[in-house]
Amino acid sequence: MKKTSFSLVVAATGLLLASCSAPSGQESAHQTSGDGDLKIACSQQEIFCQKMTDNFTQATGIKATYVRLGSGEVLARLKTNKGEFDVWSGGQAENHIVAHKDGNIEPYVSPNAAKLPSEYNDPDGVWSGFYTDSIGFCSSKDELARLGADAPKSWDDLLDPKFEGKISMPHPATAGVGYMVLYTLNQKFGGDEGKVLDYMQKLNKNGVQYSKSAATSTQMVGRGEAAVGIALDSDCAQAQHEGFGSLENTYPEGGTGFEVGSVSIVKGAKHMDQAKKYFDWILSKEAQEKFAEVPSFAAPTNPEVTIGSDVPDQTKVSKVSWNVADAAGKRQDLNTLFEEKIQKASEAK
After folding, report:
1. Shortest CA distance to 17 belongs to which of 81, 66, 65?
2. Which of 59, 96, 243, 271 has the most CB within a 10 Å radius?
3. In whole angstroms, how large is the CA radius of gyration of the chain?
């Protein structure tokens, strides 16, 4: 049977955020946590979380453990599981601002923050950015050939009837990249939520799945379960590296969204001194040079680090206007719009 709208990995987002559980393989804890260990909420790919946590311990001697969670999941856990984490590593800067407004982030200005360009630091010390990447269209060349379609090069290209049931994107409530898509469209349409809704309703007809995590979209495309994944360019490059050779990444010519992947300290951290040392370390040249060893395909923010040739060149990407504070402020309204008008419509079919 042909699918005519996005199926939902999350049947009831509210229940998911209340329980904060995740399907097997999506949430993972790194080794057994001791009371004295630094505890990290990590919103990056699993391999990045694992290797960078290990690198931090090797560099500083501080024992650390992590739990890999999407940004939406971290926001929920910070509200319901006080004291669970000391530091939040990864995820879009706007989500760290949301956590701060909820009273769950302790501002901190690292001495290493001064080495970064100003756009990678919050003026109030809520967050600092340690990587950046952009939203692209990660396509399977094999599936495109089978459909007789070209790789999409604009947001409107995704509405081509050839892509019916063939597009995947992350769910805005669980994955920060999903919300990035909504805010990108908000900027594209000049803040007109009606136009955002109209576009998403049309896109919904072409969708196969709202994935729980950002990387899942690229993996679905790699396996031929979808033709196009709306995903971060770094995740598409990561999937290519992992053996999905048919993938290619394109960008919407009219402009796309981008993230500043950030670090912040959780308010009331049980290991505050260690959390600050992690914050300092992840901004350093020493730490960001380790990205290539992971390998990670997100671009480091420390200008002293040499960017690898296989990392998508962010300077060549056409981007929409991006205001981190505004993106944080609109998060609830845009996600509610999605849940009420798009998700419920899909569940009703």
Report:
1. 81
2. 96
3. 19
